[in-house]
Each structure stands twice: as structure tokens, then as C-alpha cells.
Amino acid sequence: KSEDIIKIYKIINTHRDNIKRDIGTIDIIKKLKIFKTTSGKLVSLDDKVFLPSFEEIPSKSDIIIDDSYFNKSDLIGFKDLLKSYPFSVSIYSYDEFIKNSFREIYENENDYKKKQLLKYLLEHYSGLSSDARDVLRVTRLFLCNDEKYHSSTENIFFKNDLLEDIFGNLYNYVNIDKDILNRHSDELGLLGILKEPTAKFIAQTLSTVCNRKDAKSVLKILTYLLNNFDKFKGHEDIQTLKDLNCIPNQNLNLRKGSEVYSLFLKQELDELGDINFIHSELHNLIVKAAGAFDFFEINTSAPVELIVKNLLTSVEKNRKDKNYSIIY
Questions:
Q1: How large a percentage of the chain has pLDDT more than 90?
Q2: pLDDT for 218 beyond 60
Q3: Which residues lie closer than 8 Å to 101 by C-beta, 6 or more apart?
Q4: Whole-number pLDDT of residue 325
Q5: Which terminus, N or C, of the chain has the lesser number of Cβ atoms within 10 Å?
Q6: Is 238 within 8 Å of 221 (Cβ atoms)?
Q7: Taking a C-beta distance cutoff of 8 angstroms, is the pair 195, 203 a contact?
Q8: How far is CA 236 from CA 195, 197, 202, 203, 229, in A?
Q9: What is the DSSP letter of 194?
Q10: What per-residue confidence (pLDDT) applies to 212?
Q11: Which residues pair with 277 in a beta bridge?
């Protein structure tokens, strides 16, 4: 029982000076399983256990001693006794805790405790080592709009209505209390929460909606990409789009850029029913995005054989209203 354990603590604390001089008694105390971890497990000081040096301790650790039991008026100095020679219980720094235990413990905590741990983490983030920060980036820290926890490596964002409309259900944003967002937006950014899409995210989401053959979503994402084309066109991830069926044609069917023709060639190829012309909405954007025609390898000139075929088809149909000298 907790009451019995606290009684033992009080006896040890009361006779601390005599105990410190008696090696035999010290060895006995070290072997007694009278210390509770934050998970409720009874351990001895001979087990590999630690005293926390930080306030917001996890509720499910088997190696961190729950020092809340020491918060009694007649147990003043008991924690210091355990830290000092000859007990010499190791102190678990917050940085060591993050590196060695935080991920597993946090991901198994309840939602309320996660909020407390995250708040404490953000308040103390500046003092963490790069190794500890690396652990945090792969920890599922953040509850998002899909009601799941995600790590920042999974492309999660600060909420933005415009981006949510563009990227749809592939856009995950953090559901965090406003006061935490306001106080710790810098720390959240350092943890990897995004304000704007990265080239990798755009390439991944575009690939996903293309596989779904969702041309309307493709148009939305390409619109964002082309409006910011100078920013993204040099990125390696964006280069992969050249091999993707991501250009909607006039019927909203998705084609590779090399299979699609500019609308500037409409008159030259207007008699051929099997030509894929770029969708008009997208064409206007590509015209404004310098280098986009070449980037997506969209045809801006027609092969001679197609021009001849179109001309012959037009003649066969007796298109007397055409001024061929202007068109060709």
C-alpha cells in the first residue's frame, strides 16, 4: 500500500544520518522494492531507475521513480538523500528522457496526458540537443484534423483554409489549442510543422490524385504549382512529374505532358478527333508560368505528318471556309 511505503520513507528520512554510516543497512534498503515508478511498478534502487529532473513526468514509465510520493512535510530532503552518496540514484535529465524513453511513452499515453507533455515539451524545447530533436521529429506528437496522431515527417501543417481546399483530405493540419499555437508557433515550426507545401508534398499529393484519376483535384494542385512555379521548378521532387499522367486534356482525361498539345495548335490540328489538347483552364496558367511548357514537355509545335493529315482531312470534308495560307 502507498501508506505503508510512505511510512518506510519517513523512517529512512528520520534516521538518515545513522543510515548513511551503516553500509549494511544501505545495501538492504537498495534491494527493497519500495519505490514506485510513474507506471505504478514497484522497483528497488538496485534496478536501473532514475529520479526525474523535470516537472511534467510521464504517467507510464517503468524506469522513472514517481517523486510525488516525496511531497510530504516530513519527507523534506528525502529526494536529495536518494540523489546523494551512498544511494546515488541517477538523475534523468529531460534531454536524456526525450532521447531514450519519450517516444514510446508519449505514443501510449492518453489524450489528456499527451496535451500536458506536449505543452511542457514546447516550453523546454530550446534546451534540447539536436539528438533529442531528431527523436521528436519521428514521434507521433500531433493530433490532426483526421483525428489521428502524426509525426512532423508526415507533412502536417498549420491550419490554412486555402490549402485545405486545394489539397483536400491529403492535407493534415494540427489540432492544437489556440493559446499553445500563439505562444509556441516558432517551436512548432522548428519541430517541422509546415506553413506552406514543400516540393515533396506537392509531388506526393499530385501522384496520389493522379492514381485516383481525380482530374479536378489535379487541376487544383497544378494551379497552385504553376502560380508558384519559379519557387518549385528546380526541385528534384518536382522533376518526377514529367513521367506522371498529370496533365488534363480537353475531356479531363489525364495524360503525360508529351502526349498533349498546346491550344495554340488548335487550328492546325482541328480536324483530327484523336488529338489530346491541354485543358483550357490549365493552358492559360502554363502560358503565364515561364518554362512550364518545356518542363512538362507539352507539344508546342505539331509534327509535319499530323499537319498534312489534318490538311487532307479538311480538304476531304471540303472546308471551303478555311484560309489555309493563314493557318499553315
A1: 80
A2: yes
A3: 58, 61, 63, 64
A4: 57
A5: N
A6: no
A7: no
A8: 21, 15, 12, 10, 13
A9: B
A10: 96
A11: 261
Residue with cell 529526494: 79
What residues contact 157, with CB distance under 8 A and at least 6 apart? 163, 171, 172, 173, 174, 193, 194, 195, 197
Residue 39 has a CB neighbour count (10 Å cut-off) of: 15
- pLDDT mean over 57-72: 87
Per-residue DSSP letter, 279: P
Q: How far is CA 51 from the centre of its chain?
A: 32
Find out whether 111 and 144 touch, Cβ atoms under 8 Å.
no
Higher-scoring residue by pLDDT: 320, 66: 66
Contacts of 325 (CB under 8 A, 6+ apart): none
> For residue 287, how far is the Cα from the chain centroid?
34
What SS3 state is found at 226?
Answer: helix
CA distance 199 to 110: 34
Q: What residues contact residue 314 under an 8 Å CB cut-off, 6+ apart? A: 271, 322, 324
- The helix/strand/coil state of 299 is strand
- Whether the per-residue pLDDT at 328 is higher than 60: the answer is no
Write down the pTM of the prediction.
Answer: 0.79
What value, to the nearest 5°, has the Cα angle with vertex 239 and ends 164 and 204? 35
Phi/psi of residue 39, each to 5°?
-90, -5
